[in-house]
Amino acid sequence: MKISKWSYEIEEGPIEPVYVYEAPVRFWHWAQCLAFFMLVVTGFLIGWPPIPNYAETWNTYFFGHILLLHFVFGMLFSVLMLYRIYWAFVGNKYSRMIFLLPFWDMQWIKGIFGTAFYYLFLNKHPKEYVGHNPLAQTAMCLMYVLGSIAIIITGFGLYAEQWGWDTGWMSWFGWVTAWMGGPQVVRTTHHLLMYYLLIFLCAHLYMSFREDIMGGGTQVSTMINGIRFFKEPIPQPGNNVAPAQKKA
Known about the structure:
4 strands; membrane; two-stranded antiparallel sheet; 9 helices; 248 residues
């Protein structure tokens, strides 16, 4: 099976299963899902605290527990991102895709538009890719990776404020508040970045499940067992059997 160097498009058959996502990448993916879910829930509660308070605040410490959970899962989210960056250097070639956009490769650029037309139901037979398709790769890099780094930095900037100026946290992240012009700007930006990542999540779920159901390769199960299977022959040079011909 011939695969293009930068876009990982399948150019020639015969088509065979490919081990794409290593165990550390799959662990990172699902751990990030848990951390992100908890951060969104606690983040909403921090932004809009529940009105009822059935006892004295000092006695229930309800909001304090919410903040603690947010801090804990924020730390976990940050460590997982560092872990993922590390694995991009030591893992297989597919582990680096979300950090590197091959904008110099015209085949990859054409793949962005071809995949977009496919998701908009304007193209019935898209190209098949072993790793992320070019559109998903672009979204992962520009929306998820950069968005996650930005929300981590602003989050640590807000966390440092809780400790005061004469602390180690402020020596590391006090520049965030100073550079952005004040704590309220940092807080608003941090909150808006949550919506930015939620928009990515909606697109990610749509692309993954749509491709798993209607596309030629597995998606959801690949992030469980690491192997991408192709459900039917793909009309590529060297494997010119269209799905309709196979069924006939």
